[in-house]
């Protein structure tokens, strides 16, 4: 291509701004840059520095059941009364959270829950495949492990475990029910407290969630994407295109993707869209080990009763879980991270024990009351698109969300039906 043609190509290239450099925004930016757009990725904190940094690293495609479940109603008082239990609600945040919880309870209705489950099934079904293709292209296949995961039970009641097992089978999840000897054969460092497990054979995990985010961002930069570390305070659309108001100078582009998770509400309010999103704060505690294969675990192990997960990572065992509703700006309560280590002692025979080097983290998951993300073209703004609200499944659904956004921007038919994910359900 001669210089004149190159210059003409640059003039006509469509520009896209992606607001939010978590795993969702990174995947959207990479897909659009690969499709020939000139993409600018923007984030106040940096690439992958939110929930994409300290999460459990679990590609949890088995999680197709919405969080709004009727059985929670009788459990909720007990769960909330324990300040270090798996669920906590800040007293100061309680009034603000009531509207969200009312919508959450409404989504417990069987018809709505079944509809939301089917939508999650469609989104999760091939989510790992989209990643394997992407990571192969980025020469980063070492960052994903396809060894499955375990959901372990300390309960002696096989009938209850069997019921949960049948629910997963009915949802089309590849799963095996294991007894104690079979479970310990897979993971010898599991405690004798474990009586049964569900072995999800088709799920995966990453040895380093932050490295995964940065690697995909670097892959996009290699294709020409640029990154700006700045806050975006407003987005507007006019006949001339999209204007982003930032902490620096305004940025004008042809298209915009809003993918800033729990921080998306203000930007969407400015566009006159209602977004009932909660900052569902999660904690993790990273325990250093001597090597990546230290014998502690070889795959993620989640506790059914204690509601947390342990994932083997690069020279680290990461404990993650708990749900805290306290808003975006409340100080972190790192006792909630520390308690994960106490719980791990019931799950593992040997727990890494180096208190001086362990690292506690807190991040705000973007949770919507129906457990579905928003993936759509803005109904009243044809050049603005939303990719946000992925709650516990941002890592899992990152690559497929990027693909779907690429299809929406280019006018292609999406790989799955996106009607359940449109923001119109809240407006």
Automatic annotation (TrEMBL):
Gene3D superfamilies: D-Amino Acid Oxidase, subunit A, domain 2 (3.30.9.10), FAD/NAD(P)-binding domain (3.50.50.60). The lineage of its organism: Bacteria, Pseudomonadati, Pseudomonadota, Gammaproteobacteria, Alteromonadales. One of its GO terms (molecular function) is oxidoreductase activity. One of its GO terms (cellular component) is cytoplasm. Keywords: Oxidoreductase. InterPro entries: FAD-dep_OxRdtase, FAD/NAD-bd_sf. The keyword Iron does not apply. Pfam families: DAO. SUPFAM superfamilies: FAD-linked reductases, C-terminal domain (SSF54373), FAD/NAD(P)-binding domain (SSF51905). Residues 16-408 form the FAD dependent oxidoreductase domain. This is D-amino-acid dehydrogenase. Its EC number is 1.4.99.6. The keyword Isomerase does not apply.
């Amino acid at each position: 291509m001669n210089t004149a043609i190159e210059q003409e190509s640059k003039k006509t290239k469509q520009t896209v701004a992606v607001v939010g450099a978590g795993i969702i925004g990174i995947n959207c930016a990479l897909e659009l840059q690969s499709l020939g757009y000139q993409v600018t990725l923007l984030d106040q904190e940096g690439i992958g520095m939110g929930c994409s940094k300290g999460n459990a690293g679990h590609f949890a495609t088995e999680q197709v059941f919405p969080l709004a479940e009727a059985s929670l109603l009788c459990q909720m008082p007990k769960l909330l009364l324990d300040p270090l239990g798996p669920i906590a609600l800040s007293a100061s945040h309680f009034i603000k959270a009531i509207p969200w919880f009312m919508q959450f309870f409404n989504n417990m209705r069987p018809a709505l829950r079944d509809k939301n489950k089917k939508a999650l099934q469609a989104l999760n079904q091939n989510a790992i495949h989209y990643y394997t293709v992407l990571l192969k292209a980025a020469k980063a296949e070492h960052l994903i492990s396809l060894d499955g995961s375990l959901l372990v039970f300390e309960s002696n009641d096989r009938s209850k475990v069997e019921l949960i097992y049948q629910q997963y089978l009915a949802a089309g999840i590849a799963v095996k029910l294991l007894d104690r000897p079979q479970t310990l054969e897979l993971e010898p460092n599991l405690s004798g407290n474990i009586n049964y497990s569900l072995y999800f054979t088709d799920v995966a995990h990453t040895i380093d969630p932050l490295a995964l985010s940065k690697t995909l961002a670097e892959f996009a930069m290699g294709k020409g994407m640029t990154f700006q570390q700045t806050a975006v305070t407003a987005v507007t659309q006019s006949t001339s295109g999209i204007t982003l108001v930032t902490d620096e100078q305004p940025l004008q582009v042809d298209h915009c993707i809003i993918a800033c998770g729990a921080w998306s509400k203000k930007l969407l309010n400015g566009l006159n869209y209602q977004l009932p999103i909660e900052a569902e704060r999660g904690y993790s505690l990273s325990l250093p080990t001597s090597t990546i294969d230290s014998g502690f675990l070889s795959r993620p192990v989640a506790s059914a009763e204690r509601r947390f997960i342990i994932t083997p990572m690069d020279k680290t065992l990461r404990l993650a879980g708990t749900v805290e509703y306290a808003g975006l700006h409340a100080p972190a309560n790192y006792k909630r991270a520390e308690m994960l280590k106490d719980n791990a002692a019931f799950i593992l025979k040997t727990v890494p024990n180096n208190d001086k080097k362990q690292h506690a983290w807190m991040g705000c998951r973007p949770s919507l009351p129906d457990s579905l993300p928003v993936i759509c073209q803005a109904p009243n703004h044809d050049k603005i698109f939303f990719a946000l609200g992925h709650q516990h499944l941002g890592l899992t659904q990152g690559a497929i969300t990027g693909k779907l956004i690429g299809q929406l921007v280019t006018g292609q038919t999406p790989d799955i039906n996106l009607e359940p994910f449109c923001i119109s359900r809240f407006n």
